[in-house]
From TrEMBL:
Residues 226-324 form the HTH araC/xylS-type domain. It comes from Mesorhizobium shonense. This is Transcriptional regulator GlxA family with amidase domain. It comes from the Bacteria. Keywords: DNA-binding, Transcription, Transcription regulation. The keyword DNA-binding applies. The lineage of its organism: Bacteria, Pseudomonadati, Pseudomonadota, Alphaproteobacteria, Hyphomicrobiales. The keyword Transcription applies. PROSITE patterns: HTH_ARAC_FAMILY_1, HTH_ARAC_FAMILY_2.
Length: 327
């Protein structure tokens, strides 16, 4: 016999799906709730409830072409413990309509926690709802976020973040990790364990887990080194100092240098330089951006300094790499 739970004690989450949203991120988040809400795979809404909210009942098309039907109009946002915005492709100029933006602002005014999943953080930031909160985005979208919202605090080394009344999640499989942390907080560890076991997930990753990204294809198991590499890749133009880099991963400069020498046989400064020059090489091969602009974009003061460093690293001047680019 199923346990009856008072309606007021249920964890309630409203989902807002952007046009061209990422289906996997939504599915993993909502399925974690579904499996945590009941025993085994019964799918009853015992401990949690969820709705797909929208301004109309038109089908919403995911980036993969699958369509999802909204289940609720924009009801009082105060009925939900969280409202989760699931984003997707960034090339959609209007991922949500104006009524949706107004609803999100109403929810924020009512102190309902808002969560951006995948590029849902862009939608919240566009609405002016992320400015005073640290935002976590995928390394894939980091540069785009910084360009669009230069006055926002953002990082691309962690898989998710829950900061006061805002949350952000890099997307993909980390949607299940974030949902699991919410389940654990609002329902129980047992409910979380049930959901993860049915989903064939050994253990939920914490918000401190490092995104699986290794610039320069450096194989390493130390999460501090992985985080440092992602930070390097995320700060190509606006470079950060080695002490700042060390502090961002919880180490002193000396500890960071020792870690790099042990794992890569090189100093963090030289690896950072290589990361920047690899980016320059990519720009030379794939774009027609002038040499001086590439030099500035990858953190060099002038073209001559850039050209000298490029030759020292790759054995050829950048002009030769550019000339090899197909017309």
């Amino acid at each position: 016999m199923k346990l009856a739970v008072p309606e007021t004690s249920r964890l309630k989450i409203g989902f807002i799906l952007a046009r061209s949203f990422t289906l996997s991120a939504f599915a993993l988040f909502v399925d974690t709730l579904r499996l945590a809400s009941d025993e085994a795979d019964r799918s009853g809404r015992v401990f949690a409830d969820w709705q797909v909210l929208a301004s109309t009942r038109h089908l919403i098309t995911a980036s993969c072409g699958v369509q999802v039907a909204p289940t609720s109009d924009f009801v009082d946002p105060g009925l939900f413990d969280y409202i989760v915005v699931v984003g997707g492709l960034l090339n959609n100029e209007f991922p949500v309509d104006d009524e949706t933006v107004r609803y999100l602002k109403r929810a924020a005014a009512a102190k309902v926690p808002l969560i951006g999943v995948c590029t849902g953080t862009f939608i919240l930031a566009d609405a002016g709802l992320m400015k005073y909160h640290r935002t976590c985005v995928s390394w894939l979208h980091y540069q785009a976020f910084r360009q669009r919202f230069p006055d926002h605090e953002v990082r691309a080394d962690r898989i998710f973040n829950l900061d006061r009344t805002r949350g952000s999640c890099a997307g993909g499989s980390s949607a299940a990790d974030m949902a699991a942390s919410i389940v654990r907080r609002h329902i129980s560890e047992r409910a979380e364990r049930n959901a993860l076991e049915v989903l064939q997930i050994d253990k939920a990753r914490s918000a401190l887990h490092i995104q699986p990204r290794r610039p320069l294809a450096i194989e390493c198991d130390d999460p501090r080194l992985q985080a440092a590499l992602i930070m390097m890749e995320s700060h190509i133009e606006n470079t950060i100092s080695i002490p700042q880099l060390a502090a961002s991963v919880g180490l002193s400069r000396r500890q960071l240098e020792r870690l790099f020498m042990e794992q890569t046989k090189s100093s963090p400064a030289l690896v950072y330089k290589r990361v920047r020059l690899e980016r320059a090489k990519q720009l030379l091969l794939e774009t027609s951006v002038p040499m001086v602009e590439i030099a500035i974009e990858v953190g060099f003061e002038n073209a001559s300094h850039f050209s000298r460093a490029f030759r020292e690293t790759f054995g050829v001047p950048p002009s030769k790499v550019r000339s090899a680019m197909p017309n």
